[in-house]
Amino acid sequence: KIQIIKEELQIILLTLTRVVSAYGIVYTITEYGFDITMCEGPSMMPTIQPKGEIILLEKFTHRLKGLDGGDVLASERRLKHLSLQREWMSQQKKKKKKKQRGEEEH
């Protein structure tokens, strides 16, 4: 009976170790390697469109070489990010419905 409990505890510990390791790997990759974000606002025009263009961020080159002229910088507004994303998606749905209604009338 004690042997069974030991084996179950080992399985639980192994699973917990794997989950924590996976979280650590994902955190490290998104914090120091790559991340995906959505561009909002006209500040990056004409290079990046303000309509919610999805961007892959590479985060390690500047740590090795520093920043140069022409580099694109990204900043996050962590508190507003989700609300802005929801607002943008809502606007896109409204535009799509409006466009569909306009096509149905013609």
From TrEMBL:
Domain of life: Eukaryota
Molecular functions per Gene Ontology: serine-type endopeptidase activity
GO biological process: signal peptide processing
InterPro entries: LexA/Signal_pep-like_sf, Peptidase_S26
SUPFAM superfamilies: LexA/Signal peptidase
Spans annotated as Disordered: 85-106
Name under which the protein is recorded: Mitochondrial inner membrane protease subunit
Organism: Ditylum brightwellii
